Membrane protease subunit HflC (Microvirga flocculans), 79 residues
Amino acid sequence: MNGSTLRTGLLILAGLAAIVLYSSIYIVQQTQYALVLRFGAVQSAISEPGLKFKVPLIDNVTYFEKRVLDLDLPVQTLL
């Protein structure tokens, strides 16, 4: 094997490893919840912030806001 061929192969392999690592990391912010879905089924629900890992190309992450406030206003009857 030629030295430049080996170097090119290692460079391609390192690039693929970087892409897989990048696609397996996700970040949950302080104002978010995260739901990890594997083929549409819930795998886990994440409520604490931080750097997390998932299985690339199999798991999907859906984010929800913690800051959404639902207010139940009292119903006033007209008499």
Summary: The chain has a mean pLDDT of 89. The longest strand covers residues 32-38. The chain has one helix and five strands.
